Amino acid sequence: MEKKIAVLPGDGIGPEIITEAVKVLNAIAQKFGHQFQYEYGLIGADAIDKTGNPYPDATHELCLNADAILFGAIGDPKYDNDPSAKVRPEQGLLKMRGALGLYANIRPVKSYDALLDASPLKNDRIKGADFVVVRELISGIYFGKPRGRSEDQNIAYDTCVYTREEILRITEKAFEFAKNRNKKVTLLDKANVLATSRLWREVVTEYAKQFPEITLECNFIDSAAMEVITKPTKFDVILTENLFGDIISDEASVIGGSLGLLPSASMGEKTSLYEPIHGSYPQAKGKNIANPMATILSAAMLLEYSFGLIEESKAIVNAVDKALNEGFVTEDINQGKYKTNEVGDKIVEFILQ
Ligand code: IPM
Ligand code: MN
Q: Where are the domains of the chain?
């Protein structure tokens, strides 16, 4: 198979972890006889420094013309500490999500037996946890208008808007995942308070009637925030709106033992993007200590979801499992002794074995 992959390393540790993921993709190409061609683009603070724009037009073109997108991380402390900055790296990410129509954010969460002790949560609670968060990504309060400040600057407002259509397309995605998993969808909302949540419940409940084999549960986000870390095994597919999904997926990441392990996919009609859920970890930039596994697992999701290469994707997942079980891990996991590039090399070695 011949495919073109847009690669956007971004900021902080982005370039280092992306290097390892590309190395792993090359190993897959070698082993299974594929050709992956990479085209690199600018995004985030790096793009602001070089072009003044966190998501330059050239990057958008590159993404549109690629078969899939692999993304590192964005964010730079020099913007976090400057509330007056007009252009911010995060704007690049939101602009890209919107412009590419990446409406479905998929974040799988699971506990690894080898890492049960690495999580601050009790072993018996998290053992066997395995669910996926399906988060709506390009609407809701992140994008709703009007937003801004009153003239006297004393009032600020954001608006949460959802249309039936936006809810329906992400609901279809969640049910697709549930069909191939344990056949349960849990909708998280705040339908006791919010009008948008009541529309979500209406649309999702109506849609679910077509699939009697799939169980639908509707939970309030506040109590689900508790259950996600006290009873994580009750979840299979979590379906939720943009802001709730943002919060619940960071919370759920403690189940896995390290934020450095969680991959994600952002899927659209035309193209899809794959990235680790962690940020740019600026303190570790250039030190060769960041965990490349989340990005490597994101590359595995890319192969499966965008190219339909199931066996190739499994080969990556198995190699990562092996590295975890045999202790070839970076310092974020059980005080691992290995460097970013050494973990990447090990995973390549396991793939080519
Ligand atoms: C995420 C991030 C982004 C979000 C930020 C960086 C804009 O937290 O991908 O979860 O809030 O969606
Ligand atoms: Mn987030």
A: 1-116+257-353, 120-130+146-254
Q: Is the CB of 246 under 6 A from ligand 1?
A: yes
Low-confidence ranges of the chain (pLDDT < 70): none
**CATH class (in words) of the domain with range 1-116+257-353:** alpha beta
Q: Which atom of ligand 1 is nearest to the CA of 249?
A: 10
Q: Which CATH architecture has domain 120-130+146-254?
A: 3-Layer(aba) Sandwich (3.40)
Counting beta carbons within 10 angstroms of the beta carbon of residue 82, is it exposed (0 to 12), middle (13 to 18) or buried (19 or more)? Answer: exposed
Which amino acid is located at 57 in the chain? D
User: First and final CA of the chain: distance in angstroms?
Assistant: 21
Q: Is the CB of 93 under 6 A from ligand 1?
A: yes
Q: Are 246 and 135 in contact (CB under 8 A)?
A: yes
Judge contact between 272 and 117, C-beta under 8 A. no
Nearest CA to ligand 1 atom 5: 90
DSSP letter string, 82-95: -TT-SS-HHHHHHH
Percent residues over pLDDT 70 in the chain:
100
Q: Yes or no: say if 70 and 15 are a contact pair by the CB < 8 Å rule.
A: no
Q: 261: part of which helix (H) or strand (E)?
A: none
CB atoms within 10 A of CB 268: 17
Mutation choice for ligand 1 from 103, 135, 246, CB with most ligand atoms inside 8 A: 246
Choose among 138, 135, 185: nearest CA to 162: 138
Question: What are 12-35's pLDDT values in tens digits?
Answer: 999 999 999 999 999 999 999 999
- Tell me the residue type at 240: T
- Nearest CA residue ID for atom 2, ligand 1: 246
- Pure H helices in 306-339: 310-325
Atom in ligand 1 nearest the alpha carbon of residue 242: 12
- β-sheet bridge partners, residue 71: 8
What pTM was estimated for this model as a whole? 0.95
- 237-251: per-residue pLDDT in tens? 999 999 999 999 999
